[in-house]
Amino acid sequence: MTSLNNLFLSIDTEILQLNKNLNRMISAKHPILYAAANHLFKEKGKKIRPSIILIIAKITTLHKKIHPNHTRLAEITEIIHTASLVHDDVIDDCDKRRGLDTVHNIFNTKIAVLAGDFLFAQSSWYLANLNNLEVVKIISKVIIDFAEGEVRQGLTSFDTTITIDDYIEKSFYKTATLLACSCKATAILSKCKQNIQNDLYLYGKHIGLAFQIIDDILDITSNTDTLGKPSCSDLKNGNLTAPIIFALEENKELYKFIDHEFYSEQDISNAMKIIKNTRGIQKAKDLAEEHIQLAIEIIKNKFRCNNSKFLIIISNYILDRIN
């Protein structure tokens, strides 16, 4: 944790400025829309995604300098991520996020959808103002991928034929694409060669996949207070994640509860007991660790400088969330 604190100290000024800028960037003419958007940024959090972008900026520029376009990209990434959470909460009918009431719970579903759309629109406007067509193209694809991921998830609810490969592909569209594309975009802004851009894309992809797998494990192993949102929500919504898929392979009794789409809370409780009594959670953790190690190897092999160690620290921190 000391090393992680050192990381945040190294970009403390930039993160403080980022928090101020986010509040300015989401200003809206309509007070309700502004209140809805502003509510989302009350919880400061660790800002892992912007931190990764800022550290990559230091690694890939002369004199280890973070340029204004790098900072703006970090802000855009956080806005896009937050917009996706607003829509996720509506789709999943989630009443808490990061310990706070969700936008649709405070206002209504219509306002929440509009707030999410507003944030996507704001991010697109600031993205265009970076005046870099390559970056515009790659980050715009993220929003397309998000929609693709949500559709895939919706079409496979309670589908017990889903494979780990299907799950990884869906997780890329829903989560990892943002980190992968943002890491590559950072390298583009730093005028890095294509091979460096591709390496950082892969780093972001593996980190993003690991992050999603760990989130899915925590949905089963943690309680609502720790998560800051309702636990077991994936299971209740029929979203079959890595630990559930692995558990299905080991204990066929789980099929009947999923096939019946959990008639009662007791069904959920029974299903949770089955999952926890299999090696599903451990196998999911092993899968997350594989992606973390792939990400770390890219950094160790391609980026030998003082700031690169912070990307390894972040990578290990993501895995340590379940320890």
Automatic annotation (TrEMBL):
The record's listing under Pfam families reads:
polyprenyl_synt (PF00348)
Q: Which GO terms describe its biological process?
A: isoprenoid biosynthetic process; quinone biosynthetic process
Q: Is the keyword Metal-binding in the record?
A: yes
InterPro entries given for it? Isoprenoid_synthase_dom_sf (IPR008949), Polyprenyl_synt (IPR000092), Polyprenyl_synt_CS (IPR033749)
Q: Which cofactor does it need?
A: Mg(2+)
Out of the domains of life, which is the source? Eukaryota
Q: Which UniProt keywords apply?
A: Chloroplast, Isoprene biosynthesis, Magnesium, Metal-binding, Plastid, Transferase
Q: Does the keyword Transferase apply?
A: yes
Q: Which CDD domains match?
A: Trans_IPPS_HT
Sorted alphabetically, which PANTHER family does this protein's record hold? ALL TRANS-POLYPRENYL-DIPHOSPHATE SYNTHASE PDSS1, GERANYLGERANYL PYROPHOSPHATE SYNTHASE
Q: What is this protein called?
A: Prenyl transferase
This chain is encoded by the gene named preA
